[in-house]
Queue: 3 jobs
Job 1
Amino acid sequence: MKIVVLGGGISTERHVSLVSGTSVCRALRERGHKAIFVDMFLGLENYTGSLEAAFDQPDGFCGEVAIEKTAPDLEAVKASRKMKSPSRLGKNVLEVCALADCVFLGLHGADGEDGKIQAALELMGVPYTGSGPLSSGMAMDKAMAKMVMESCGVLTPRGRELSYSREDIPELAESLPVPCAVKVVGGGSSIGVELPDTREQLRAALENVLQYGNRVLVEEKIIGRELTVPVLDGRYLSPIEIVAPEGMSFDYVAKYQSGNEGAREICPAPISSEQAEMLGRAALKLHNALGLSVYSRADFILDREGRAWCLEVNTLPGMTPNSLIPKATAVEGMSYGELCEKIVLLSLEVKNRR
C-alpha cells in the first residue's frame, strides 16, 4: 500500500511525534509498504519531484530525529519554514495524502489528536488511522472527556474547569484547593501539567500553565501508583505501571529520557488479576463511551484503597518502538512492525464500515 505517515506538526508534542512518525514509517517500509514520512507543518518543501514519485523515495523522507529534554521551540520551527503562511499545513500535505491508500496519523497534541486533521481527511475521502473527528476532539479536551467519564461511571478525580488571565492568579491561588493538579485542557506529554502542594506552588503553577493556554482543569490530587491501559481492536491489553525516578513526577523528562532521568515502565504491571480486570474494563468502557476507534490508551492512578482513578485518554498515543502500546503488544508476541500494520488494516476496516 501507499501510506503517508503524518507527524511533526506545530504542537508542544512535536518532538515526540517526529520520533513516532519516522519509527512507524520505517516499520511499514520494512513490511513492504510504500510508506513516506511527511511533517504536517513543513510538508514537502524540500522535495522537487512529482508527488506520485514521492512514494518511491529510497529513505521514505525518514530523517534522524530524537526527543529532546525540553519541549520544542515552536517559534523557531515556524521561522524555519520556507512557506510563510498562517496555514498549519505545509506544502503539498493534503495533495500527497490524497494519493495514499491510507494516512497513518503519527501526530500528537494540537492539530493531530483534536480532530482537525481527521475532519480534513474525512472531507477528502482519504482513509486514516484511529478515531474520527468528533471522538478525537472530545477525548483531547480533558474537561469534556471528564464529563464523559462521569456519565459512563468511570471513576475520575473531582475537578472544575476554569478560564483565567494573569490578573486572576492572586485570587485563584488563595481560593483553589491544594494539593491539586492543574492541567491545560488540550495538552499532552505532561506539558502544561503542574502538581502544586502549597499555595505558593499553586501561584507558580498557574503562571507556568498560562503559557500553554488559559483554559484549565483543576483536579483533586490523587496519590497512588501510575498505570496505563492500552485498548486495541475492541479489547484491553496488559496494564503497564510507570515508576518515575525517586523524587520526580512522571513529567516530560521522566517520560522520554532513558537512564536515571527516565521512568521505568513495567509491563505487565505487578498488580492482581482483579485489579488488571478493573482497570481494563474502565479503559474499554471509556473507549466505547467516547466512540473511539481502533486503539487508545487510558491513564489511571491506583490509590491505596485499590480504587482506579482515570486521569485522561489518549487517542493517538506514542508509537515509538519503546512506547507503551508497543510494550503491551510485545507481551502478546506481536512485533512493532506487525502492530503498525495492524493499526492500518483495522482502520481501513472501520473506514469501510462507515
Job 2
Amino acid sequence: MVPPSGIRKFFDIIATMEDVISLGVGEPDFVTPDQIRRAGIRSLERGETHYSSNSGMLELREELAKHLAKRYEVEYDPETEILITVGVSEALHISLLALVDPGDEVIVPEPCFVSYKPGIIFAGGVPVVLETRCEDGFQIAPQEIEAAIIPRTKGLLIGYPNNPTGTVMPRDLLIEMAQMAEGHGLVVFSDEIYDRLVYGIEHTCFASLPGMRDRTVLLGGFSKAYAMTGWRIGYVAGNGEIIGAIGKLHQYAIMCAPTTAQVAAIEALRNGEEAVQAMVQEYDKRRRVIVRGLNDLGLSCFEPRGAFYAFPSIARTGLSSDQFSERLLFEEKVAVVPGTAFGACGEGFVRCSYATSLEAIEEALRRIERFVHRYG
C-alpha cells in the first residue's frame, strides 16, 4: 500500500492557518518571467487552443534538442527521441510504467523525492532503497549500488541535484555509476529537473557520460528554472526505442501537453536565460543566509550545492521529524517538511525550502530560534 504524500499533509494544515511562513513548498516564489507569460498570452489570442502532436510541438522538441546539445553535448533526434509531457511528474510515471515489468527491482538512493518509490510500485516493480548519510554529504557510493544488484535489477532511479537534500553528485562518482550501469545492463532514470539550479559548480547530465546516452531516460522540465510550475510542462529524452514505448502510454493517458504551455516553453528556451541567471543569483543569496542561520542555531546543516532546499539536522531538540514539523507549525507558524517524507533515513532532519523571499527566510529563522530555545 502506498501512503499519502508526507508533503501534502502539511500543505492541507497550512491552508487553514494565517500568518504562516512556508519553507515547505518546492515552488519558486518568482512569477514566470514576463516575456514567457506574454508568449503564452499571444498564443491564446491567436486561438491556438487545439491539440498538438502527441509528442509535443516539433518546434519545442527542436529547441530542446538544441538546448541539450549546446549545454551538455548530448544529441537527440527531436522527431523520435524527445517527448513533451505534463510536467516531470508525468514523465517519471509513464517512463516507469513503460520500462519496469512486474517484479523488476529498481534501486533508489534515499532521501529522495516522494514520487520515486510509489512510481516504481505503481509499475509493479520493487523499490530497493539505499540510504545515504549526512556525514557523506548524502552522496551514494557506486559500490553500494553494485552490492544491491541482482538478476531482477532493472535499473537505477536518481535525482541530482537532489530533492530534499540539495546534494549534487560529483562527476567522477557519476562516471563510476555509469560504468557500473553499463556493465550490468541497467536503465538509468535520471530526474534532472533542478539541473539549472546549481551554485558554484557545474551540473553533469547523466546521458552525456560515456556509454549512457542510449541507456538513460532523461527527465527534465521548465517548472523550477523558469518558474513555470503551474504551466505543467516537462519532457523525457532517450533513444528512439525507449521513447516509442513511453510515448504509447502518453498517447492513451494524456494525448498531449497543454498547447499554450508548449508555446511558452519555446520562448523560455529561446529568450529566458537572463531571467534564469537572475533567479539563480537570488537563490544563492537565500541559500547562504538560511544555511548559515540554521547552523548558528545549532541545527547542523551541510551545504546544499543545488536545487533550493536545506536539510538541517534537528537532533539537538530531541524531537522526531514529525514532532518538530508539527510543533513548529502550530507554535511559531513556520512550515517545514519532515525528513521522513523522503524516506526513513530522513528521520532527524527537516526540509526547508529557500524558494521564498529573503525577508521571509530571516523572519522564519527568528521564529525557529525561539522554538529551538524552548526545546534545545
Job 3
Amino acid sequence: MGNSELLASLQASFIGRDTEYPTVGGSRGPRVYLDSAASTLMLAPAYQVGHEFLQHYASTHSDLHYAARGASQAFHWAHEKVLEFVDADPEVYCAFFAGSGATAGFNRMAASLAETRPEREVVLVSEMEHHSNDLPHRHHFESVVHIPCLGEFERYGALNMERLRLLIEEHNHKINYIAVTGASNVSGAITPLAEVASLAHQVGAYLIVDASQMIAHAPVSMNDADIDVLVFSGHKIYAPGSPGVVIARREVLNRIAPCELGGGMVDDVYLEQYMTTATLPDREEAGTPNIVGAITLGAVLDLLNRIGMDKVREKEIDLINHAWQGLSSIDGVTLYGPDPADIPRTGTIAFNIKGFDHGLTAAALNDYHNIQVRNGCFCAHPYVRELLKKEMWEMDIDLDAPDADDQIERKRGMARASLGLYTTRDDIDALIDAVRDLAGRREEILATYEPVGRNGYRHTKFSPAPQDLFDPERTLANYIAAEG
C-alpha cells in the first residue's frame, strides 16, 4: 500500500468518527468532530495493537517469562518510535513517558533546571502559551519574562522575533531557557523553532518546546531545529489514554537529579542509602509505566511515519485555507490570529459570531448541526485577552449589575474549530454552512437558549435522551444483563 492509499485508509479508521447524536427537530446523524486541539479521536489500528498486547499483558523490566519479555521489548519499541518520529538521534536524545499529558514534563524540566542552574534565574516564555508551558516556569523561577507577538487585537499572534532578540540581549546569560509553543492552541500560529534555538544557544540558554499542538499536524525535527527539550501529549495525536512524552538531550538529563523516586529508577537500595541508576530512560520513569498507552502511541507514530508528516501537512493546509476563506466571508464572524496567508498555521481556528457568547455558539452548533467544537479561553488566558482586547473595551455591560462577572466570562472567550487527520472538506463545508445559518438566525437562536453558569448555555426546549450520552454505569449494567 502506497503512502496516499495508507493515508486514505487511516482517515476512515478512527473510532467514534461516525457516532450518531440527535439534533433539534428530531433528526439523528453522525457528529462532525472539530475538537481535536483538546483531544483527538483514537486511531483504530493503534487501538488494535494495544488490545492485542493485553492478550500478552505483563509488567516490563524482565525477560524471564514470555509475556514480560514481550512487554519489555514493546515498551522499548515505543521509545524508539518516539525518537524516530521527531527525528531525534538516539545517541544525542532520550525519550521518556511522564504523566497523562504535557503538564508533567514541563513541571519536571522547570523544577530541575531551576535547581541545576540557579545562577540563570530568568526564563523567557511566549505570550501564546498554554498554561502547562507557562505556570510551571512561574512557580519555579524568580523572573519569567513573556515574549510578545506580532500584530494587534484579533490578528495578534506569531512570535515577535525582534522583541525576542532584544530580550535576549537584555537578560543574556541570566536566561536559563526559552519556552515556546510549536503551534498555538488558540490560533494555530507556528513558531520558527530553529531560529529561536539559534538565538537561545548564543547565550547558553536551552530551548523547551511545547509540541502538543504541532505534533499531529506538521513534521518536527529535533536534529534540524536543534531543540533541547520537546514535550507533547499522546492524546493530541490519536492515542487517547497514552502518557505524555518528553524528548531531551541526554547531556541535559544527565545534569539533573531524578524528580520522582520509586521502583525501576535505582540500581540498589539499602536501609541507609539508595543508588540511582545512570541508565536512561529508566531513571526518569519511576514506578510501573502506562505500558498499554505507550505501545498504542508508538503504533500511531509508526503509522504516521509511514505516511509522512509532509503529506499530512499538505492535506491540512488545503483545509485551513478553505475554512478561513469560508468563515471570513460570513457577515458578523470574527476570526482570530494571523491570516494563514501571512503566518503558517496548523488546523486550529478560533472565531466568534457577533451577538453570540462563545458558549452559545458552541451549544447551538452542537444542538442544531451536530458539530462539536470547544469554547472558552483554552487554558491560554493571557493570549486570549490580547486577541479580545478591542472587543472587551467595546462591551456593553453594566458593571454594577449583580451578574456582571458572569456576563464578562460569557464573553471572554471564543469558539474553536480544530482539525484532525479524519477531518474532510465536507466537514469544513458543514461548519461554514452551520455558522452562516446561526449568524442569519441570531434573534431566533438567542430566544431559545438560557445561560447556565459562566460559560454554559442550554436549549430551553430540546435536550438529548439519557441513552444518547455515554454512561459507564449503564454500559456495565448492559454487559451484566447480556452475560446473565
